Structure formats: C-alpha cells, structure tokens
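Interim report, section 4.2 (structural modelling).
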Amino acid sequence: MDELEVDAVAEVDLDEPALIEGLPGVGHVGKLAAEHLIEELDAESTLVRRIHSREFPPQVSVGDGVAELASARLHAVTVPDGRDLLVLTGDHQAGSNAGHYVLTDAFLDVAESFGASEVYALGGVPTGELIEEYAVLGAVSHEGLIEPLEDAGVEFREGEPAGGIVGVSGLLLGLGGRRGLDAACLMGETSGYLVDPKSARAVLRVLETRLEFTIDYGSLDERAEEMEEVVGKIQEMEGQAAVDVPSDDDLRYIG
Amino acid sequence: MDELEVDAVAEVDLDEPALIEGLPGVGHVGKLAAEHLIEELDAESTLVRRIHSREFPPQVSVGDGVAELASARLHAVTVPDGRDLLVLTGDHQAGSNAGHYVLTDAFLDVAESFGASEVYALGGVPTGELIEEYAVLGAVSHEGLIEPLEDAGVEFREGEPAGGIVGVSGLLLGLGGRRGLDAACLMGETSGYLVDPKSARAVLRVLETRLEFTIDYGSLDERAEEMEEVVGKIQEMEGQAAVDVPSDDDLRYIG
Amino acid sequence: MDELEVDAVAEVDLDEPALIEGLPGVGHVGKLAAEHLIEELDAESTLVRRIHSREFPPQVSVGDGVAELASARLHAVTVPDGRDLLVLTGDHQAGSNAGHYVLTDAFLDVAESFGASEVYALGGVPTGELIEEYAVLGAVSHEGLIEPLEDAGVEFREGEPAGGIVGVSGLLLGLGGRRGLDAACLMGETSGYLVDPKSARAVLRVLETRLEFTIDYGSLDERAEEMEEVVGKIQEMEGQAAVDVPSDDDLRYIG
Amino acid sequence: MDELEVDAVAEVDLDEPALIEGLPGVGHVGKLAAEHLIEELDAESTLVRRIHSREFPPQVSVGDGVAELASARLHAVTVPDGRDLLVLTGDHQAGSNAGHYVLTDAFLDVAESFGASEVYALGGVPTGELIEEYAVLGAVSHEGLIEPLEDAGVEFREGEPAGGIVGVSGLLLGLGGRRGLDAACLMGETSGYLVDPKSARAVLRVLETRLEFTIDYGSLDERAEEMEEVVGKIQEMEGQAAVDVPSDDDLRYIG
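Predicted structure of the assembly:
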C-alpha cells in the first residue's frame, strides 16, 4: 500500500457541496454530529470514498466478523431542497505531526475534486465543568465568515479556544485557508470528560440553520439520556462512597 | 542496508501454500503456535527467507555467541498429504505505525511470490481472567470465509474483539483483503497476563482441522504445565502473604 | 502543503542584517526578548516571511476568531542609525529531532537570502534558583566572537551550559557555524520555573550594546512586576499553608 | 545540512585498521574505553572524520565558549609495532530506530573506505550488582571469531546477554556481519548504576592482547578511585540515614 490511497467506492455528482468533518476528538462531539447527519439523511447518503494511509494506526476494526482496515470515509449527501454535503468520518486522527498535514491535504484534495469550496470542521471545546447551556464556539479561515456564522448562532470569543485548535480540524482551517477555501470550525462546549451527544446536537443545530437542512434528533436525544443515566449512577456511587468509607480522621477516632 | 532487505536463504517449490503468521503479541499465542508448528514439522521445514528492516528495533540477539540481526523468518513447510505452508515468525513487530504497513506489505509480497493466496494470522485475545475453555475467535477479510472457519471450530462474535486487531496480524487482514487474498485472524482466548501455551494449542487445533495436517502437542503441553507450576507458586506466595503480613488494622490494634 | 513552505509577505531591502531568533524555550526568555524588540521598533518593523512546515504541530492559533496556521515569522527591522535586523519569532519548536535540523536550515536559508551573515540566538539558561543579578551567558560558533561579546557584557564560563544547547538555538550555532556565519547564543540566567521578563531585558541590553540600537523597557518592566506579584502571592499562600495545615506530628499529638 | 554529512578533517594512510567503537551506553564502558585509548595514544592519534546527522539530537555542546554540533568522531591511530586503529567516539546514539541503521551503515562505509575489515564494538553489560571480578562477555558476527577472542580472555556464555545487544554496537555486529566484516562486541560486566572505569579497563585489556598495543591505565585508575569515593560517601550517607530517621514503628511507639 502506498503512503496514502483513495479508493473510489462510488461516483455522485454534487453541486458545490460543503465539506463537513467529524473525526474523533474532545467529547467525540464532531464524530457524533457527522455520524448522526449521515444516519438521519440515510436515504440521500452514498459512501463515495475510502481513504487509507500509513498515517493511520496499523489496525482493523471488526464488526460482524469481517475486518475493516483503518480509514476515513467520505459520504456524499444530496439534501432535498438544500446544499449538497460531503461528510467526512472515521475512527482515527493521524499518528504523527506530519501525518496530520498529509491527511488533511488529502481530505481537501478529494473534497475539491467534488467541487467543494466550503469546509465545516466539527468538534468540541472542553470547559472542565458540566454544561447547562451548550454554546457553539467558532473559528474561521477568513474574517468575512464571522458575521454569517454569528447569524446562525455561533459565538466568537476573543482568544478562545486558548490552546488553539489541534489535529485535522485545526488544519482544515489552516490549510483550507491557504487554498482560498471558506473554512470554519464549529466547536460545541462540552465538559471534556464524557461522550457528549447534547453538544453534538448544538453543533448540528448551527449547521441546520447555516446549510438549510432539517434532521430529526430522536436517536441523539436517546443517547444523551443514556449518558445522563450513566452520570447519575456514577454520582450515586460516589455519594454512597462518601457515606460508607470512613475517613482517616474517623479511623484515628476509632483507633 | 536498505529500508527493507529480503535475503533468499533457500528455494522450495510450494503448491498454493497458506501463509501462517506468528509474531509476538498478547500471551505470545501466535508466536508459540507458529514456532511449535515449525518444530513439530521439522523434517519438512526449510528456512527460505530472512527479512531485515530499519522498521525493526536496532538490535541483535545472541544465542551461542554469534549475533543475529533482528529479522522476520519465513519457513516453507511441505506437509505430507496436506496443504503446503509458509510460516512467518520473528521476535519483533515494527517500531512505528507506518513501519507496520511497510513490513506487512513486504510479508505479503514474499508470500505471493511463493504462490500463497490464503493467510492465517495467529494471535491471542485478552479476557482479563483465567481461561477454562479456550475458545478461538475469528475475523476475516471476506464474509465467505466465516462459514468454513466456523466448521473448524472458530467463533465469530458480533463486535469482538472490541478494540479491533492491531499490528501485523490486523494488517494482514486489512492489506491482504485489499489484495484479494483470503485472510483470517485466529485469536485464542488468553488471560493476557502470561505466556499461554494452552491458547496456542487451541489455535493450532483449528488450523489442523482447516489445513489438514497433524502434529504432536507433547512439548507444548509440557510448557503449559511449567507455566501452571509458576502460576501455582505465585498463588501460594500470595496466599501466605495474606496470612503473614499484618494489615493496617492489625497494626493499629497492636500499636 | 509541502514539507516546508516559505510565504513571501513583503519585500524589504536590508543592509547586512543580523538575524535575531527568539522561539519558545526556558523561561520564554528568547521569545519575550524578540517580541519586545519588534513591538518597540514597531514603526520600523515589517513582517516579511511566514514559514509553515509539517515539522510544526498540526495546530492553528485563534485570536479574534480568525485561525492562524502554526508558523515562524520573520520581521525586517530597519533600525534608525543602527544595524538592520531580521527578527525570527514563533510559537513552536519542531516536533522531532530531524525536524529541528530541517527548520533551522530553512531559517538560515531565508536569512542568507536577505544578506545576513551574523546570527544571535536568544534564550534562557536555567539556574534552579531565583536570580538577583541577571548574567547573560554566551556560546559562539567561532572563537573570534568571544572578545567582542565579552565587551558587550556577555559571560563565557568554561563548560557552561553543562547540558549544551538544544533546539533551534543550538542548531543556529551548529549549522550556522558550518555555513561560515558568525553565530552566537545569548542566554539570560533564569530560575527556569517562570516566564522571566527580567532575564529577557538582560539579554536585550547586551544586544543594544552590540548592535547599536536603543529601545524602551517600560512594557517589559510592567510584565516583570506582574510576574513578581504572582510570585509574591504564591509565597504568601505557601507561608499561610505552613501555619494552617497541621503536620503529621501534630495530628498524632491530637489523636 | 543533508540527512548525513561526513566531514573529512584529515587524511591518514592506514594499513588494514581495526575499527573500535565506543559510543555512550551502559556504564559508559565503551565510551570511557575508546576515549582512554585516544588519550593514551595521543601522539599517534589524528582526528580524520566528523560525522553529523539529523539522526543525532538537535544539540551543540559548549566547551570553552565555542559550540560544537552533535557528531561522531573518527580518530586514526597508528600504533607503533601494532595494528592500525580507527577509533569511533561521540556523545550520542541515534534518536530513532531507523536512525541507528542509517548511522551504523555510515560508520561502516567510512571505516571500509580506510580499509577496515575488522570491527570491535565496546560496551557494558549490566549485572545489577557490584562487580568484584570484571569479566568481559563477547558476541561475534561469525563463529570463527570466538576461539581467538577466548584466547584473549573473552567469555562466551550461552544466551547472554539475554536481551540481545541494542543500538550502534548491536548493529555493528548485525550490519557488519552482513557486509562480510569480522565484527565482535566486547562487553565489560558492570553494575549498570554508575559510570564504570574499571569495566572499561577490563575491556581494554582484552583489546591490548588481541590487537597488540600497550597503554598506561593511570588516569583510568584515578577515575575509578574517584568513583569509589563517591560510592563510599553514598553508602555512608545511607548508613547514617538508617540511624537517624525514625521508622514508622518508632513513631507509633512515641505516639
């Protein structure tokens, strides 16, 4: 296998599609959002490209017994009465600094071959605490993109995210901008500790407004409820622990 | 030395051999199995290729004073009345992500040059607890391979192994499948804590049925017994420890 | 993007400029010094080159919502009545050993294209304790550079810094020297625990004398005072802690 | 700078020299031995090659103020009435797996350009305890080299060193053997905890016998005595500590 191989799985004609990226990252927000989008628009979605690379881990995933080589996958989505989409998903970021540059350039090459000139990198931004109101932070490749995104509900905060944006999402802005593409990163606030379907929903709501599609959130809300049950049980266990386990002081008292 | 060098040690004509890989991994199951196979079929085994690579650690092993450069080794085995085999063994996986891709491609190139179109990657799958019944899990490159392997005693469980298959074994499926080869990974269940000859035996039993050879397990059973003595001694020591060593509470009582 | 790309942002004619490097490092001394220089000579400074590379982290920084791809930046500074300067700043060192060599060679190529034949790599040398008198240690590519730098207040101490000089600063001396450039490293003493504007000031004072420019230190002194307040608060908290928190012995007494 | 550059510092005609390598490693045995050899045969030693490489750390060392780029150095030594020597020293191993292969091949290329067909890689083998009798273990590229080395006092022990030989020393055997050179690794036993001049002396004694040169050990013995004083002081401090510091049990008694 070459350093990078793009398998053409199918061909679909798209009209100036927007590239939407959702690879694994903080709270799996981007991945959840991109996968939910493909599932909900299933009837209009076609897997068009598989991208393999030595920059991915040397790994296969196994579903129903059949192994699948580590890859990123590109779905073409022809939204009824809306913008066409190219949705990029996968299970891995690159395994090295240089690898992120190589992969992101490959993703942009493929997207441009479908006529894309607009890029939305989806992700999460960790706040370190549980979220009540799920704000969506933005960062863009060109200043002119700020206003229309603010109209769609995105917040731009001076100097945030403080640590910048790393990985494929960051480079889609950096390298996309160098190519003259209109690239934006939409980052849902999330605690950073757990997979966060609610943050993914907030990011998708922005995208709905911006790209004029409509999807159902039933399955994402179910997953959010499951996560909340998990959180509830953990808190319950911690509560009991606080009652049952004697502290050091107690022991001294007893001793 | 080039990035990769394949030394031709001997030439043997084989009839559509099956490639069997057993490099180091979980419980050393694959390595034990492949090495046992070569030992038991010693009279029919010939070392045909040595593969050196910068992707291996910069290391020599020393047996009887003579140093041997890190390598993978390919033995041709002409099984009486059975399928010819190519058995791949060695002491190392690659040292980097990309290296695993490079090495696996080299292994497949060499195997195909001998006419191989079938690949069995042997390994272990960790369960985290001691095993009573040694099941052998399977994963394959093409759906059609599942049924004949189930007939040979392999289990296919939805979504297992959960973390996928990493390293050379995983890529033999992933890259082998891309080449159109029939590739399967046979993974013996093992605790994951110890070298596990019993798991290696379980894997070899599947291979006997599937590839129609017969071997003796005497030496492997001896090794299994040695391992059990070791485990027994550890458990004994832990048992005594529980008796002899006063706990924190005891000390407070005394104090 | 290629492995390395140099964007020409502007062209400025310089007369035998001196290259001054200040990338992140111990106490951020070099970075603080180089950035202060550009700020204070703002009217005479022009951003001339941006250097992007796969050797940098896969990262964008976000200021006012617009993402900026990881880069090193070269400013041309035409000092009134003084030597012309090329000031190299940025937010990252390389991410690998080989990457430091590649980047440093690129920095030297660009500097030589502007006619530079003199290099000053700025940095800090950690002492492990708070500094009263900020000495500036030196290391040079050619023996003849020692005397003029001693005249400018630089100290040369046998065998210091003991661990050598690592990263871009070290290679500017090593690779610069191999090119026949006059290269020096100026290292301000610093505790090594904190960002140290005072050490940056000491380094800049040497450079003022050596390269005949004059700058104001008001903003750097303010930052130094802020840092001292931070240090003071930490010491205060530690002092209180020593009073309030009962030691193990106290607890036994109480128990 | 290219990935690898060999600077010709001087030319010396040698008659079938033996390459002796002493880079940093366990107990710095090889490095101490090689450097002592060059110092003691100073009048007959000439620095002939400096090897720079991106595989070395991005680092300069600083002696008397002048920086020296990370390198390996090759000295030609014309031993009176004995074999000519090429002695390889330096401060670094490679920084990556592949780098060790690249560097070792470069070292062998240079050595062969001087007509060398014999290689001695010097190093230490850790025993984990203080040594009384300093044995020197051997490993060779070809079986025929064992007997003459045993005659020079080298011990060959089945399966030792158990972990093989890593780094440049190991590859000099592995890659040297593949080139048809006579390569041996001489490993002085050493605790593994400290720089060990006595182990270096034991290795050099073997080399004296084998290559027919004679050197003085005064300075190496002095260093050994210094090390012993250090060890003595550490043991003394540990002894006092055992007396002064009350144990947990003492504290309970007091409490």
